Amino acid sequence: MGGGLGREENRFGAAPSAAGYLYQARLALFLCIPHVNSGVEVEVSVERLDDVSFEKDGSPFELLQTKHHIDRVASLSDASPDIWKTLRVWAEASADDPSLPSRAKLVLVTTGEAPLGSAAALLRPRQAYEAGTKRNPKLAKEILTAVAETSENKSLRSAFTAFLALSDAMRSSLLSAVEVVDRQPLLTDLGVELEHALRLVAPAGKVALAREMLEGWWWPRICEVLMANPSDTIPVGALEAKLDDIRELLKRDALVADFEHAEPSDTEIAEYDGFRFVKQLHVIGLGGNRLRFAKRDYYRAFVQRSKWTREHVVLDEELEKFEQRLVEEWEPRFVAMCDSHPGSESNDSKLKQDAQEIYYWVETEARLPFRSITAKFLNVGSYHILANDLRIGWHRDFLSLCREESSDG
């Protein structure tokens, strides 16, 4: 085995190719959005009939070639490899099936830019032109034919040959079907474009979450169709159904419990040993699996609440009101327990037993709703968060016994 590529060499070797394939898959998702709710059964595929293709009733109506450039400096000149490698694909396909240009739109999507007056610029979609300029496939054909006939670029000879092998009428038909969509966002910028496209699906402040949920569903589907033999398609109707699910989940009153079944690592479990909520449980004689479950619920509630707050899914005031309800449910039970042990010593076994009864109520019965969610992990974990702040406790003397425990800050 050799020494392998250096970091810079690798960046300009494998990385652009990998980015190009990821670009195709992410772009396909973005281009599906306009077809949602169209009422037409459309299917999309990647690396099947073209880089990206859209089909209806088993027949392609839009074929896309994609050219992604990490450095964004690509220029679609009349002798550009991006132009000619694309034209070769479509010229050979049109030679095999002369009806293709009349029934399918052929789109080159590129992060590069078509210079003013170039053939590529003359093939932009009509809606892309500014006042005073217009689409002109006829002139583009003349420019490209001249390049193919006179260029001495040996690396593009097969592309020139495929283009010139078409009759003049077929070249006109081909270029009438071609659209060059240049200056498109990079792979990393497509996320912003997706979020803009999803702004009508998600409530304010939740567009990024909607995109994350949609892409989390999309990538496994892309992997499945790429691995299928023969290659498969994804119905846009499936995307529409997923968007409906996301829309329901992200309604103002709906919350997504991402961490309901999350498992903290052994390291995280061990780190909680110095926390006050753990000390509170030690004080009443609790240990073993119940102590581990307590740490797990604390972890789940803490990371879930943190995510909701960070993503502005919930407001701080909502959490404060929820915690106040938890305190008010705990308070009469705690006071009643204290009243039944007015002169007991702190280490009295009956006092500890009655304190465990309050905690048992939290484990098994305390289930207050937080907006649309009534979940054990959120209730129990939030009680531990309160216990960690010494706002509630189980033992009658929890304040004096646990106040000095502050290793968690």
UniProtKB/TrEMBL annotation:
Pfam families membership: CTD7 (PF20283)
InterPro entries with a match to the protein in the record: ABC-3C_CTD7 (IPR046913)
Domain ABC-three component systems C-terminal positions: 277-401
Origin superkingdom: Bacteria
Designated name of the protein: ABC-three component systems C-terminal domain-containing protein
Organism: Agrobacterium cavarae
